[in-house]
């Protein structure tokens, strides 16, 4: 039995942070970072059966072309992903009344639809990136036992290539779900490694008033390659989503509309258009699955 201090429930029986009960979610889930983007997706639904919000975690579940889908905002960063995926897994794989794990486990399909900046000059603004791998620079996943799901060879190659400071903790690499990759892929998608940082400023190489530990890290990441895979973009959630999903037995895939190009210093003239196109494409692919 899981102790009440470990799996915290609200007085109504919902999970603590997400404010959800098992019947409130579908098995196909779209993650967005911004709570205001939830309705940018669900506006296309035929109907919405459930809606709730607690803090930055907004959830809506409804029907799109006959398919039941949940859209959930995670907020920013790997720490929020730790909350969201653990609580979603509890909804489907733990009996919340007895607080015992279920014998028959359920697999969720989780697709992140987000925005990101490209690190490569040839991946322009307004294009789409599918994350073949998530490269975690954040250290959150190291709280778990991850050797069974991580790509140690790629991790070691990245550490050697960047002369990574061990005081920051070892980066981790997790692959996307092959099932979702095949379902979503198209000629529109660039593929590669998405680096996940634990912050927006220093952890992504931005300097305001504080010097950073390695001012050349971004340029080192630009030219890192492993078995034909290069780092395409930098954001704050993908590797954590991939890691926890793999550990818990869920399928996960991260898609990004590129709204900035760090290499060329350009920014999309209409970032909302790129995001809307990625949303429409993703919804159609889920409905066809």
UniProtKB/TrEMBL annotation:
Enzyme nomenclature, EC number: 2.4.2.3
Matching SUPFAM superfamilies: Purine and uridine phosphorylases
Enzyme class: transferase
Pfam families linked to this entry: PNP_UDP_1 (PF01048)
TM annotation in the entry: none
InterPro entries for this protein: Nucleoside_phosphorylase_d, Nucleoside_phosphorylase_sf
Reaction catalysed by this enzyme: uridine + phosphate = alpha-D-ribose 1-phosphate + uracil
GO MF entry, a single one: purine-nucleoside phosphorylase activity
CC per GO annotation: cytosol
GO BP, sorted A to Z: purine nucleoside catabolic process
Gene3D superfamilies: Nucleoside phosphorylase domain
Domain Nucleoside phosphorylase per the UniProt entry, residue ranges: 29-266
PANTHER family, sorted: FI09636P-RELATED (PTHR43691:SF11), URIDINE PHOSPHORYLASE (PTHR43691)
Name of the molecule in the record: Uridine phosphorylase
